[in-house]
Structures
1.
Amino acid sequence: MAGVLGRISTIFKAKMNTALDSAENPNETLDYSYEQQIEQLQKVRRGIADVVTAKSRLQLQLTKLQQDSAKYDNQARQALAANREDLARLALQRKADLQTQVTAMQAQVETLEAQQQQLQSGEQRLAGKIESFKTRKETIKAQYTAAQAQVRISEAASGLSEEMADVNAAIQRADGVP
């Protein structure tokens, strides 16, 4: 019984393999892989755009904080000129608080700049790999198409030689040659 099941399993596997081979088209598989790579590249480019946007927002906020800091510095000078040390201290305290925020924000901008550089470098490498894959894909597709044509030519030549053998046999029978 085990021998019969083994044979059935082998036959089933062979039939499935044949069915999958005939269903798979290397050209389609290569095109799909290329499309997937292009989508990945687009995601990386969107990521770069998001980082650039975030960095620009932070830089705008940083500029505003620096302007506010300068404003508090100016207020402290005016308060000192008016002999209001209490107001000058308050303005300088606000300026110091802003300076802490400015320092933290500058660090964030630098981090985003580094991420942007890293993403751009990765994007360039990925674009190069995709271009290389595209060239290789087209070469493989051309080779596959040529191989298919060669198979069709061989099949046609084989069929033609079989037909010629049949015609020769018929001619020989007609001539009475055994």
2.
Amino acid sequence: LCTMFTASQDDRLLAGRNLDWELPETPAIVECAPKDGQRYLQVGFGWSAGVFTGMNEAGLVLCLEHVDGLGEPELRDAPLEFVLRDLLASKTTAADAVDALKALKGQHGHHVLVAGPGANGFESNVVEFGKEVAVRAPEDGVLLGVSPSNESADADSLVRHARVADLLATNAKHDVEALQKVL
């Protein structure tokens, strides 16, 4: 479905996400200004009231992706798309968002890329909702939405994320325009 990553360099954090599925969908960008909390942008589709990707005014970025091998979601909790919407309105740091996601029960089949302000600049993690909730951190400054060692991921996801890893490795300056062309 999608490709997500973060890359850090020179005290900067670059978060990337595309919506690259084959359906002829037009993404919708919505600016939200809740009465209480952080203003945020959400990117999704006209048929979804939740967040697939979003960023709030504090700089917190959340990106959701379905991963077949992580199991099927249970319906006893709010859909993650709604949870992300609430987190964007209420959280200002990556650590607070990760803690809130780790506390969820009954979520399976998804992972969430979390990036934003942290204790020492910017932080990023991927929270995976499989049999257990797992948190992955960047390796050598790069965090892929799907780890190349993820045995439950489908082959297409592994290929897309390996392509991004290669591009980041060969593009030392993390040229945003070059990354956009490949993604």
3.
Amino acid sequence: MMKRIVFALLAVVVAAGCKNQKPLLPSVSGKAGEVMVVIDKEQWDGVLGENLRSILADEYPFLPTVEPRYSVVNVAPGAFGDLFKVHRNIVFMDIRPSAEPGLTIYRNKWANTQCVIQLSAASAAQADSLVTADGAKIVAAVEQAERDRVIGNTLKYENRDLHAVVKSEFGAGPHFPTGYKLKKRTPGFVWIADEKQHSIQGVFVYSYPARGTAEDFSMESLVVCRNEMLEASVPGMLDGTFMTTGTYMTPSVNFVRYKGRSFAEMHGLWEVEGDYMGGPFVSHAFYSPDGSKIIVCEAWVFAPKFDKRQYLRQVESLLYSFEWDKEENVE
């Protein structure tokens, strides 16, 4: 009798605990880099849809071939049922006379790691103005969601030994998923890559003395120091060849602040001096905690048989996983 009472009490406690738990969300659907836009076909085919496509499907910067930033699919509101509600990235256009104009971003609304962006407007013209005004916010929200998914999977399936290698050399570093391997380590330089039959996703982490002036993070200075480091550390397949910065496009530099860290983000193309190899790269350059060195984390891709957008987005996301052990802010 006593055992029955104990089991009954346990059942009540467990049931009560379950009621307080948040419901488990399903995993997101859709391909990486895909955005679903929920909007009437008439508006999608008109000025509003054209404006949305110009923002979401514009040319991805610094790729050797033209590729859209995102793959965009349109679904009419009447067809937007449960099957579509778990899509990874959704831009929902709420256009009705009584709508309060504005932009709202939801995380994990109907699925885990989901990004839902709702634009509310009283008319298509007002919606078009909102898209123009908030286009950068829309792109940033989707990009952050795509990045967070890569980082989340990386931490779930991490090769901890690689982070330890970089940390021992520079005091901190990005995280790497299984599949990446250590290619080279010399004082002040670490090369880690995921090499498959027809593609390479690589990461360099290196450092060099800082001058302590604004020129440390100018495009010219970053390129000169990059070329010096890669000529010494990254040989090509043929004798006398080495990786360098491509001259077909002039690299761009933006200054970014992300989760308490500040860095100069450079986009460009790499090539091999004396050979016919090349591809895109992205680098983050910042001061070491004591300001004596500049540390550079660089992501690059070689995939001559494939589109490169998603390869680059994946490996670039790893750079954003960089963290100092004590959350030091480096300006």
4.
Amino acid sequence: ELAEQLGVSRTVVRDAVRVLVAKGLLEARPGSGTVVCGPSARSVVQSMALFLSCGSHRVTAENLVEIRRVLEVAMAGLAAERRTSEDLAQMRHAVSKHLKAIDAGDLDQCAGADWSFHVALARATHNELFPLLLESIADILIEVRRTAQQVPGRPRLALRYHRTILRQVKAANVEEARQAMHSHLREL
């Protein structure tokens, strides 16, 4: 029916259904057909990332900094309120990876460890939307980090800010954690 309605071959419809099943938007149920699924968190992130990378509009550095200030300053405060010992361990692990990458002079690893810290902080809010929102701009943020890591002294400066944020989150100092993140993002 779809092939006929859309004026395409059945092969085209089958391929489209396979792609939509792979993206989690359709579910093929043997014996009962194909049904539309609600979007998953992963499909929302993929859609936002695709939207941002499609090039039909420009995401400026200023746009990115504004979004990060709104999201990440709030995340730091919430993480200070809600973090668990496991959350703190994840943040410490990211800081440790960052230091090892700096010592090894591996800028790609620095960028990855930097990103890991921010993701761990987002998860420490225990609000599933923060990691999703952060992940939707991940590709852009990782590219920005790779560029920033090439500026002499920048990896160590970022690490110093991460340690300060971690200290404030660990101490449950909400306002100080927010301020530490604000100071970190002001350096961008």
